[in-house]
Amino acid sequence: MINKKKIFGYVMAGALGVNMLGASSTFAAEKESPSKNHSSQVEVSVFHEKSTLSIELKTLQTEAKKLNIKVDGKKANVLRKEIEECQNLHKQAKKLGLETDGKTPDTLRLEIKECQDFHKQAEELGLKTDGKTLATIKIEIQQLL
Fold it and tell me: Which pLDDT does position 28 carry in this prediction?
């Protein structure tokens, strides 16, 4: 009978141990549940961030196209920089009396440089350039030379 009591004790201890393991795994599963929610919150946050970046990129692409800037394969930070540079070129061109519609940034750079060169040459020859178009300045320079 003693052997039966020992065996019964071992069986009961084992059953209790298994029961405790089952309970601890249940508590562990409950603890994991919030982290799964946290994971989905992170995924939603990342998705929101990506969609916000996508909207910003599309807005920048639209603005760049209006300024005749090529947009293919360019990231938002590159487009932002090129748009700012192009807007500065437009300001410079307008100060010099140049037309900016339909011109690429490269074309504007060349025309601004040419106009600045003619203005400098006109000033060296003693000609006034205020309020004069580039064509007028070119004609006056040719007449003096």
Answer: 47
How many Cα atoms within 13 Å fall on the side-chain side of residue 62?
6
Which residues lie below 8 Å from residue 55, measured CB to CB, with a gap of 6+? none
CA–CA distance, 133 with 143 (Å, rounded to integer): 16
For 11-30, what is the mean pLDDT?
A: 55
- Mean pLDDT, rounded, for 70-91: 91
Spatial separation of the C-alpha atoms in residues 107 and 8, rounded to whole Å: 95
Please give, one letter per residue, the 3-state secondary structure of 71-120.
CCCCCHHHHHHHHHHHHHHHHHHHHCCCCCCCCCHHHHHHHHHHHHHHHH
Residue 27: predicted pLDDT: 47
Q: Which residue would you say has higher pLDDT here, 11 or 77? A: 77
Question: Could you tell me the sign of the dihedral formed by the alpha carbons of 126, 129, 132, 138, in that order?
Answer: positive
What DSSP character marks residue 69?
-
List the structure tokens of 78.
């590159």
Q: How far is Cα 129 from Cα 105, in angstroms, rounded to an integer?
A: 24
pTM over 0.85: no
